[in-house]
Amino acid sequence: MGLFSKKKDTTPSIPKEELISADKMIKKPPAKYGEAEKLKKVTTEQQSAYKELLTHFQDEKLELPIDTNDTTGKKRPLSSWEKYWLTRECIYRYLRANKWHISNAKKGMTETIIWRREVGIAHGDEIEKPLTGKDVAIENETGKEILLGFDYDRRPLFYMKNGRQNTESSFRQVQQLIYMMESAVTLCPQGVEKITVLVDFKAYKEPGIITDKAPPVSIARACLNVMQNHYPERLAKCVLINIPWFAWAFLKMMYPFLDPATKEKAVFDEPFEKYIEPEQLEALYNGKLDFKYNHEVYWPDMVSGLDEIRHAGYERFLKFGGVIGLSEYDIKGDHDELLYPIDFDQTQVA
To answer: Where are the residues of the annotated region Disordered (predicted)?
Structure first.
């Protein structure tokens, strides 16, 4: 079957008596999915590349612009929150995404740090205009983007429901994606770096929904830039369903803009339940979660829950020294002792 061929779903729906009521974000994967994976072994060359980048960003004299075009000429050193972002895993993600080319990885990380300052997600008191849940709340009044459940590999599920569009095209839609991508990776539990994206193009006819059409190419390309350039190695899989003819045309038009790694992770017109256990999947897609989006309930709970997770991680970052190169395994855990100091030799992992 061709890449853009349609497939029929013949999976029977879940009986009503088996449904599980849900109206809030699920904060942790089921315990039965297993424990967090510890750090994996790297080669001597890979660790050498990591150490070179670590040393570069550890330089106390390093100062970076506060916006991507450097229009103000203002520069400042890395903040504590930016050092928190610069984890061991973060450095390795950019190296993998750039095929272990050190200068390209350094360039990508530098550009992302500046971009995070500009869009307001670098966190900390240094940010003049932080991007908050309140800023993009109006974009999600119909529940067009939600975090709900985890896949079998403990990865957060990020739903995008194009058919629930409630606003006209604007940069605020890009800001919503930025806010939700940052939220999704924040929700990643210990030992998990990637998320699974579920895209539903079904047209919904409810109050507040104005269109089910695909977004303008300019908005779509801006969103692609966010995901590919500033969240590298964060996408495990992107499953797209209920794709109407105009969306197929749109996807074919956008496909050349996808990098090879993203193309490999795209799955077209296969049922979500192929990848997700029913207890973690919305009933609308043959799962057991009887989820009804209520903006007044879901949104504030999601925002506050993610703030708690983010600040809990930051407190552990400070506890373990507040330095660049700490492991997300330590930051996201609940153990007392530091397991992976910045000089940990990852080539010796069994």
So the answer is: 1-21
Mean pLDDT in runs of 10 for the chain (350 residues)? 46 79 97 94 98 98 90 90 98 97 98 95 85 96 96 96 85 93 98 94 74 66 85 92 75 72 84 95 95 97 98 98 98 97 94
3-state secondary structure of 267: strand
- Residues 296, 293: Cα–Cα separation, whole Å: 9
Q: What is the pTM of this model?
A: 0.91
C-alpha 9/C-alpha 242 separation (Å) is 10
195: helix, strand or coil: strand
66-to-60, 70, 140, 316 alpha-carbon distances in Å: 17, 7, 29, 27
Question: Which of 186, 190, 183, 147 is closest to 31 using CA atoms?
Answer: 190
Give me Rg for the CA atoms of the chain: 20
DSSP string, 208-243: T--B-SPPPHHHHHHHHHHHHHHSTT-EEEEEEES-
